[in-house]
């Protein structure tokens, strides 16, 4: 009997171990599954826009298994970042940038995600036409956090340095002012530029060596993105209603009470005063009943208001600069990816 019991216990242990292994192995295999290699393609079309070259880059990223990738992709000119956009559900994205005069080596860099590896497209060589019409371009650099995509948590903020690079500004006959704005933010998030408007002079440089003073560099604005965290409005210290004295309330109630007393005394002589007193009493009761609309009354009886938070996810933010060269309006923009956690 003892031997048979030991055999049964051994069989049960083997069965339990096998069952646990059957559930564990698929999970381990899924966790250890290698990321899928990807292929990034880039197609660039150029067009003339008010005497300057506008480039439209169509980007597509797919895994070697044919499935579309997700995440962010960066359009670069050599080692210079021009724009950053999110891939859609089909693994495609479009970026538009303004190109100064000269040659440009454009390529797209996919930054990868949890299931896909990084990849880069082949280089597409394009040229920007020369022009004597003043223009500008916008470049971005992450400050805090220090890299793009810009990743922030609910309730925190992020900072991006926005540089306005002048083009053909030697032809300016008056200063050019560029006003900055942003779009594409999630709800309950905001952006602020300091300063909001940047000035370009005929002598403003288009670049500067590292460590140069601000006066020797293109103008820069600090862009602050602020998100909101879920919470409640600030708590108020309850005040006992019996001890709360309001001069305004006394200024309204005291004359009313005295007036009603006078009407009550006058009803002994005139019947119409009796009816007037009833109307006044009804008005007083109605006024006292409206105190439930008071914000303090609502707070004491319903508690503080819950404020929602900025939704999480990935968002393509567009930074736009608008100006005029004295003849036509100029609008240029670039994009980057904001991740809210």
Automatic annotation (TrEMBL):
Residues in the signal sequence: 1-29
Protein name per UniProt: Bacterial Ig-like domain-containing protein
Stretches assigned to the Bacterial Ig-like domain: 46-126
Lineage, uppermost ranks: Bacteria, Pseudomonadati, Acidobacteriota, Terriglobia, Terriglobales
Regions crossing the membrane: 248-266, 278-300
Pfam family for this entry, one: Big_3_5
Database matches in InterPro entries: Big_3_5 (IPR032109), Ig-like_fold (IPR013783)
Keywords assigned: Membrane, Signal, Transmembrane, Transmembrane helix
């Amino acid at each position: 009997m003892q031997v048979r019991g030991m055999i049964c216990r051994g069989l049960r242990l083997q069965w339990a171990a096998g069952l646990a292994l059957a559930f564990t192995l698929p999970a381990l295999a899924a966790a250890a599954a290698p990321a899928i290699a990807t292929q990034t393609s880039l197609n660039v079309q150029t067009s003339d826009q008010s005497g300057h070259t506008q480039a439209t880059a169509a980007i597509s990223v797919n895994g070697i298994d044919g499935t579309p990738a997700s995440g962010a992709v960066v359009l670069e000119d050599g080692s210079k970042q021009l724009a950053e956009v999110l891939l859609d559900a089909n693994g495609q994205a479009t970026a538009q940038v303004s190109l100064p005069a000269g040659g440009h080596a454009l390529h797209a860099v996919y930054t990868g995600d949890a299931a896909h590896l990084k990849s880069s497209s082949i280089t597409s060589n394009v040229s920007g036409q020369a022009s004597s019409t003043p223009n500008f371009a916008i470049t971005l650099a992450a400050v805090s956090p220090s890299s793009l995509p810009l990743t922030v948590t609910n309730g925190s903020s992020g900072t991006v340095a926005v540089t306005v690079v002048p083009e053909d500004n030697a032809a300016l006959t008056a200063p050019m002012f560029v006003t900055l704005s942003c779009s594409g933010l999630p709800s309950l998030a905001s952006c602020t530029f300091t300063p909001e408007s940047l000035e370009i002079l005929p002598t403003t440089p288009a670049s500067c060596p590292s460590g140069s003073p601000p006066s020797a560099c293109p103008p820069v604005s600090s862009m602050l993105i602020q998100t909101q965290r879920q919470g409640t409005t600030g708590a108020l210290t309850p005040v006992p209603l019996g001890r709360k004295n309001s001069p305004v309330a006394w200024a309204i109630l005291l004359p009313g009470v005295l007036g009603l007393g006078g009407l009550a005394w006058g009803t002994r002589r005139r019947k119409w005063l009796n009816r007037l007193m009833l109307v006044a009493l009804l008005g007083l009761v109605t006024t006292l009943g409206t105190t439930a609309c008071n914000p303090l009354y609502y707070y004491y009886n319903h508690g503080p208001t819950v404020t929602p938070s900025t939704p999480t996810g990935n968002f393509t933010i567009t930074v736009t600069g608008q100006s005029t060269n004295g003849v036509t309006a100029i609008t240029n923009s670039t994009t980057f990816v904001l991740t809210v956690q």
